[in-house]
Amino acid sequence: MHIIEQAKSLLDFNQKLDISLLDGVVNMMYTGHGDAQKQAGEILNTLKEHQEAWTRVDTILEFSQNQQTKYFALQILEKTIKTKWKALPRNQCEAIKKYIVGLIIKNSSDQITLEREKVYLNKLNVILIQILKYEWPKNWPSFIGEIVGASKTNESVCQNNMEILKLLSEEVFDFSSGQLTQTKAKHLKESMCNEFQQVFQLCNFIMTNSQNTSLINVTLETLLRFLNWIPLGYIFETELIPHLIETFLVMPLFRNITLKCLTEIVSINAQTYEDKFAVIFNMTMTRLKQILPLDINLRDAYRNGNSDEQNFIQNLSLFLTSFLKEHGETIEKNVEYRDLLHDALNYLVLVSEVDDVEIFKICLEYWNVLAADLYRENPFSTVSPILLCLRNETPARRQTYQTILSKVRRIMISKMAKPEEVLVVENDQGEVVREFMKDTDSINMYKNMRETLVYLTHLDCADTESIMTEKLMNQVNGSEWSWKNLNTLCWAIGSISGAMHEEDEKRFLVTVIKDLLGLCEQKRGKDNKAIIASNIMYVVGQYPRFLRAHWKFLKTVVNKLFEFMHETHEGVQDMACDTFIKIAQKCRRHFVQIQLGENVPFIEEILNSINTIICDLEPHQVHTFYEAVGYMIAAQNDVPTQDQLIEKYMQLPNAVWDTIIQQATANCDSLKEPEIIKQLCNILKTNVRACKALGYPYVNQLGRIYLDMLNVYKVMSSNISEAIAQHGEICAKQPLIKQMRVVKKESLNLISSWISKSSDPDMVVENFIPPLLDAVLLDYQKNVPEAREGEVLSTMATIVNKLEKSITKEIPKIFEAVFECTLLMINRDFEEYPEHRKNFFILLQAVNQHCFPALLQIQPAQFKLILDSVIWAFKHTMRDVAEIGLEILLKLLINIRDHQEAAQSFYQSFYIDIMQHVFSVVTDTSHIAGLTYHSQILAHLFSLLESNNILVPLAPQVQNPAQNIEFVQQHVFTLLKTAYPHLQDAQLRIIIKGFFDLDQNLPAFKEHLRDFLVQIKEFAGDDTSDLYLEEREEALKKASEEKRRVQESVPGILNPHELPEDMQD
What we know:
Blueprint (H helix, E strand, L loop, with lengths): L1 H6 L11 H13 L2 H16 L7 H7 L3 H18 L5 H18 L3 H6 L1 H18 L7 H9 L3 H20 L7 H13 L1 H14 L3 H14 L6 H4 L3 H9 L6 H12 L7 H18 L6 H7 L2 H27 L4 H15 L4 H21 L7 H6 L5 H20 L8 E3 L5 E3 L5 H20 L1 H16 L6 H13 L6 H21 L3 H17 L1 H6 L1 H14 L7 H15 L1 H5 L9 H7 L1 H5 L4 H16 L4 H11 L1 H16 L7 H21 L4 H29 L7 H23 L3 H22 L7 H14 L7 H16 L7 H17 L1 H6 L2 H15 L4 H19 L2 H23 L8 H16 L17 H16 L5 H13 L4 H14 L13 H20 L17
Antiparallel strand pairs: 1-2
Helix pairs in contact: 2-3, 4-5, 5-8, 6-8, 8-10, 9-10, 10-13, 13-16, 15-16, 15-17, 16-19, 17-19, 19-20, 19-21, 20-21, 20-23, 21-24, 23-24, 23-25, 23-26, 24-25, 25-26, 25-27, 26-28, 27-28, 28-31, 30-31, 31-35, 35-36, 35-38, 37-38, 38-40, 39-40, 39-41, 40-42, 41-43, 42-44, 43-44, 44-47, 46-47, ...
C-alpha cells in the first residue's frame, strides 16, 4: 500500500513526473488485487482525466520501461486528439504530429524492431489516423505524397505505412458513421479517391518488385480494404487482376488473401465490365484446377489440412458463391464457358460436403438462391403429373443444373439440421436424452435447409423421392443404419411436406410410415426405440394434409401417440404431447365429426378415456394435452354440443376444484396446505391452456369457477400478507408462499387470456370487470410491495387493450389503485421490481393508446406525475423500458395535438420541459439505441411550432405566440451552449437551423442529429473549417426550399399570410 500513498504525487502537475512510480502503479493495476488494485485504477483514471495529462505523454513514452505504461500514455493522447485537437494551439498540434510520426518511423525502421514493437506500433498508427481525421487534407495536404515517398526508402517503413493506409481506408469508408459528420466523411472520401493514384502505383510497385513476403502480404491486405471503394478503372483497366491470379493465387503463402481480393472484385456489380468477369472466372478456374484437382476427396483433405488449407476452402466457397450469384447468368449464357460453370458447381458440391458448419452455411445460401431462382422462373412445370404429361420437356436452364442439383439433394438430405419440434437427441456422450436448451443456430439452419430442399423437390420431385426411398431402404436393411443417418433422413422427409403432388405424397408417406413402424418393431433397446419413435412423431406431425385426407391413418397415428404418452424414456412423452397438439390444431374438425365407419366423433372416445391417456404424464404434459383437446372442441360449431363437450372435458379438474372449494368453505385454513395449493396451481394452469385453445366459448367454464377463484385469490393474498407481517419480507421467498403467489398469477393469467379472446365487450364490462377490480385492485394497493403481483398491471393492460373505449370510465379507479403505489416501488432506482416496472409502462402505454380522454380527466397533479413517470421511463437503463417510455411520449404528443383545448395548456406547461429532457437522453451515449425515437419526438416538437399548432406563449417572456419559434431557437441555443460551451456559435446556429429545416424529413433529421452527437465530443477551437459549415448551411437551405415547395403544392397547408404574392389568387 506504500506505493499507493506515494502515487498521489502523480496528480500534482507542479512536480516532475516520477516515471518509475507511474510504472509501479500501472503494474499494481494489472497484476495487483483487492483494494490496492482498485485504488491504483482510481489514481490512473484521475490522471487520465486531468486536462494537462497529455503534456506528459512524451516523457512517459521516452523513459518508461513498462509497455503497459506506454499504452496508458497513448490512451491519454488518443482521448486528447479525439476531443480537444481543434482547441490546441497550432504549434502544439504540429509538435504532437511530428512527435508521433517520428516515433512511428523509429519503431518501424527495421524488420526486427517492427516485429518486436508490433502492438505498440499499431496503437501509434491508430493515433496517427485520429490526427489525420482533423489535419488531412487541409493542414497536411502532402500526407499521401509523404507516406508514399517514405515507403520507397525502406521496406519495413513501407510495411507499416501500408498498415496506416489500411486503417485510414477503414476509418473513412467503413466506420465513419457516428464518428464523423456526414460532410466531413464526404470530403475525406473525395480526398482518398482523388489521391489514390499514388497509392495504387505504390501497391503495384511492391507487388511487381518486392521479394519481402511480409510486405507483399500486408500490401494485399491493404488492397483488399481499398477494393470496395476505389474507382473501377484501377481494377479492370490495369494489370491488377492478371497479377493477382497469375502471380499470387498459385503461391501457398498468398493464396488466401488473394482469393479474398478476387472475391471482393467479383462481388462488384458493374455492367460495363461484365465481359471482364468472364475472363477473371476463366483465369481463376484454370489456376484452381492446378491447385485443387476436381477428383480430390475434399472432405478428407479438409479434415487433415492445416488452418491455412482449411481457410482456403472457406475462401473458395465465398469466391465461387459470390461470383455465381453476381455473374452466374453471364457464364450460363456463354456456351464456351459451360464446362467451366460445371467445374465451378462441382467444386461447390465438394465444398458443401466438408464437415464445417460455417462453410456449409455459405454454400447453402447459394444453393437456396439458385433453386429458388430456377423454381420461380417456371413454377408450374412440376405441379402435377397430369400437367407433366401435357408438357414433358424440362426448361433449358434446369437441364443445365440437373446433374448438379441431384448431388445437392443428396447433401441436403444427409446433412439436414434438427427441427425445433424434435426433442429427443443424442448428446456428446452418445446417450439419447431430452433436449432442454433450444439450439437457435440449428433451428435457423433447418429453416434454410428446409426451404432449399422444398425448392429442389419442386424442381425434380421424382429424384427427391428416389433418393429418400433408397436411403430409407438402407436404414431398414441395416447397410446405413445409424441414429444420425435415420435422424437426418426423417428430418428431410418431414421438411418437404406440401412440396409433392398429393397423390405422390400419399404413396410416398405410406411407405415411409410403414417402414418406420417396422423398424420400431425390429430394433431392440430403449434408445433405438426412442430415436425411431421421435422420428415417427416428427414425420406424421409434418403431414397434416395427408392425415386430413385419410381418417383411419389419422386415428392410428393419434392412438400411437397415446401409446408413446406412457413411454418413460426421456423426451418421448414431451414429443408425443407436442405432436398431438400440432395434429389437433391442423386436423381439429375431423375429431368432432362422425367419420365413415364410426359411431361417434373421435373426441367422445378421447374424453371417455382421458383418465387412462394422461395417467403417466407430468403436470406440464397434461396441460399441453388439455390445450390440444381444447382445439378440437373449439372446432365444434353447434353451441349446445360444444357446451356438453366442454363440460365433459373439464370434468376431472372441476371435480378436484369442487372438493377444494367445499373444504375451504368449511375451513379456510385448508388453503394453507401445500398439497392443496399445488393442486390449485395445476388446475388453474389446465384452465389457462383450455381457455387459450377454446377462446370465447370457455365463458361457461369461467363463469362456473370465476367468483370462487376470486375468493381464493383474496384468501391467498391474505395468507401472504399475514406471513409477511409475522415473519418479515424474507418469507416471500419460502416455497409455500411462492406457490400461493403462483395461484394468484395463474388466476390473473386465466382472466387475461379469456378477456383477450372475448367478443362481447359490454358483457365483459358488466359481468366480469366489477368483481375483478374489487378483488384485485384493493388487494394490490394495500399489500406490501413484496407481495404485489406484477401480473395485476399486465392484466389491466390486457383489459384496456381489448376493451378499449368501453373501459375508459374505469381508468381513474384503476389508476388510483395501482399508479402511485407502483411508482413508489420503482422510482427509487433502476433495478428493483423489473417485472412491475415493465408492466407499469405497458399499462400506461395501453391507456395512452386506447383511453386517452381518461388521462385528460384526471387531476393536474396526477397528470404531471404520469408525465414525470414517462420522462423517467425513457431515461431508464433497461432498454425495453426506455423504448416503451419513448413510444408513450410520442403517442401522447400525437394524441394531445388532436385535443386542441387541452393541448394548449399542455404545451404551455410541459413543452420546454419535455424538449430539455429529450435532449438530455439524446446526448447520453448509453441511450444511442433510441436515436430513431429521439429523432421522431424532436422532429414532432419542432414541427408543432412551424405548423402553428401552438397558439399560446411558451414562456412568460413571450408576449405573442408568433414569437414561439424565435424563443425556442434561442432557448435550445442557450441549453446546448451551456451544456457544450466548446461548440462555436456558428456551429450551433446551423445545428438548430437543421432541426427546423429537416423536421419533415425523418431520415435526414436523424443523420443531422447524429452529426450533432459527433460534434459535441470535439472541442472545435476557433477553426471550424473542417465542419464545412457553409456547405452544410447551403444543404440545409436547399432542404428548407424543398420543404416549402412541398407545402405550397398542398392547398391549405400554409397559412394564407405565408403564401407568396403570385399564389394569393
